[in-house]
Specification:
This protein is an alpha/beta fold and 518 residues long. Helices cover 34% and strands 26% of the residues. Helix 2 runs parallel beside helix 13. The protein binds flavin-adenine dinucleotide. InterPro entries: FAD/NAD-bd_sf, FAD/NAD-binding_dom, NDH-2, NDH2-like_C.
Length: 518
């Protein structure tokens, strides 16, 4: 079978030509194998994605390729499950290192993993080693595994977003997110099991101008945009122009971060490293004009950490001239300024060259609009402790659905609030894959409840220092930084990235970050 994307593209072209003017119950399009259904026939309302003939496995449709979705399909046994990943992104993003890529400490490539590759890039390396060592028996075995996999693919990616779920008929409707393919050409995918792992969006509190002018840090695309903005004509290059007044230089080189949680703090720290380690060599005359400011409505930053650690971070920032303005409420954002209610309750306008917005999570619009599952007040999907969702029935009853699961930032277990972190998302995903594999092997469907193993929290605060709050107590400074780097290095997925990440850390330390703009 060709790639699903290609199959989809072919199908859509074929369908458009074959679509009748009058409605028919079922039409089979010979070349593409795509069927059209009337809404009342088996529940299909759109074209149906073709299923592989003679595939005895159950189909697991996974919505999302983030921490939850990616870890789920990587650990599902392909012997028992055919995985279809529906996501607008063809890759997984290793978010803890995203701030590093926004300032060039790491290249964007090393924090993403291709969904299709499933993090198995090691195969090519081990193939070469086997050939070199002439271990023909192993090479033969590997070839036969590959042949099997090519007839029954382990994971299929559909670059699309889910728009609707029909739990009664086990159908999810998706809308393609591929250039030149009409997003209105929605189609249906039939599932045996469905995992909803679509994550959340960035919270803006509907503050005017945020969506238009602020930069978010959720994806590699955002990181690349931020990096370009810092280096381009809007910040350093513009400020360097001799025509600029001192006041204008100060505005252009004012880097504002709204949100003093771990993401905002880590970005401020990485930005400070970039300026301190590299930019000051290229633009020494501009250094007196550079300012980094973190704004937060709360009384202190890093509220998820113990006060002693957040105070340590605040002191470290103040020593490095990073301003922290707490008790400040942003009211409006324009293309070059923030209107705030300041610490004294007065209105104030703050000009900026770059504004990064990181004030928490807002529900994914798909989840917000999904009225077939039970949700809590924050619009998180509510699950039982085996991650099953509660289906809402027309009469108002909520019934546990054993074939639909929700995990990651978009879901919460009833009566047990857990933070929206990669740690929780990946643990839930690994738990679910284990239970599904066990169910397929033993045919029993009783799941053990999910138990979260809290491994603590950590944040980088710049200058090779970090804070770590774990089961073994609190660590701060250089030792914490080593723990921080060690933890994220070991959690990175593919062997390729495990090799590239330390190489970038080392070369950037030795030669400086790449500040070229393209
Ligand atoms: C910069 C940054 C740093 C972070 N650092 C840490 C850290 O150090 N430690 C930690 O524990 N956590 C960290 N987090 C939080 C962590 O990344 C999230 O908790 C985690 O990504 C949640 O995983 P998820 O799979 O639920 O959602 P996501 O990772 O956001 O993935 C959601 C997926 O769903 C897809 N999607 C969206 N809508 C649809 C749709 N309608 N249909 C289909 N697919 C859809 C998206 O494209 C994406 O692939 C960080 C987050 C950020 C942004």
């Amino acid at each position: 079978m060709g790639s699903p994307t290609r199959v989809l593209a072919r199908s859509l072209t074929g369908c458009a030509a074959a679509r009748p003017k009058t409605s028919l119950n079922i039409i089979r399009h010979a070349s593409a194998g795509v069927r059209f259904h009337e809404p009342d026939s088996q529940g299909f309302r759109h074209k149906q994605m073709p299923l592989l003939a003679k595939d005895p496995r159950q189909t697991v449709v996974i919505l999302g390729s983030g921490w939850a979705g990616y870890n789920l399909f990587r650990h599902l046994d392909p012997q028992y499950y055919r995985c279809i990943v529906v996501s607008p992104r063809s890759y997984f993003v290793f978010t803890p290192l995203l701030a590093s890529t926004a300032v060039g400490t790491l290249e964007t490539r090393v924090v993403i993993e291709s969904v299709r590759d499933k993090g198995l890039g090691w195969r090519k390396l081990s193939d070469v080693l086997d050939d070199m060592l002439k271990r023909k028996d192993i090479a033969m075995k590997r070839k036969s595994i590959k042949d099997n996999e090519s007839s029954l693919p382990t994971v299929e990616l559909v670059e699309a977003i889910a728009t609707d779920i029909n739990m009664k008929d086990k159908i999810v409707t998706v809308s393609p997110r591929i250039p030149d393919v009409d997003a209105n050409e929605t189609f249906d995918i039939k599932y045996d099991k469905l995992a909803i792992a679509v994550g959340c969006y960035s919270q803006t509190f509907n503050i005017k101008g945020v969506k238009e002018y602020a930069f978010f840090l959720k994806d590699v695309v955002d990181a690349r945009r931020i990096r370009k903005r810092i280096l381009e004509r809007k910040c350093f290059e513009a400020a360097n122009l001799f025509l600029m007044s001192q006041e204008r230089k100060r505005e252009l080189l004012h880097f504002c971060i709204v949100g003093g949680g771990p993401t905002g703090v880590e970005f401020a720290a990485e930005l400070h490293d970039l300026i301190n380690d590299d930019m000051q060599h290229y633009y020494p005359n501009l250094m007196p004009y550079v300012q980094i400011t973190i704004f937060d409505v709360a009384k202190s930053i890093l509220g998820t950490f113990d006060r002693s650690l957040s105070e340590y971070a605040e002191q470290h920032f103040r020593r490095h001239n990073i301003e922290i303005r707490t008790g400040v409420r942003v009211q409006e954002v324009t293309g070059h300024s923030l209107r705030i209610k300041n610490e004294n309750g007065e209105d104030e306008t703050v000009n900026y060259g770059l504004l990064v917005w990181s004030t928490g999570l807002a529900p994914n619009p798909f989840v917000a609009g999904c009225d077939v599952v039970v949700k809590d007040k924050r619009n998180n999907i509510v699950t039982d402790n085996c991650l099953n969702v509660y289906a809402k029935h027309a009469n108002g009853d909520a019934v546990l659905n054993k074939d639909v699961f929700a995990l990651g930032d978009c879901a919460q277990i009833e009566h047990g609030y857990l933070p929206a972190t990669a740690q929780v998302a990946s643990q839930k995903a690994k738990y679910l894959s284990k239970e599904l594999n066990r169910e397929a092997k033993s045919k029993g469907d009783e799941y053990k409840p999910f138990v979260f193993n809290n491994r603590g929290v950590m944040a980088y605060i710049g200058g090779w220092r970090a804070i770590v709050q774990g089961n073994g107590g609190e660590v701060k400074g250089r030792t914490a930084w080593l723990l921080w780097r060690g933890a994220y290095f070991s959690m990175s997925v593919s062997i390729k990235n495990k090799i590239l990440i330390p190489i970038y850390w080392f070369t950037n330390w030795l030669f400086g970050r790449d500040i070229s703009r393209f």
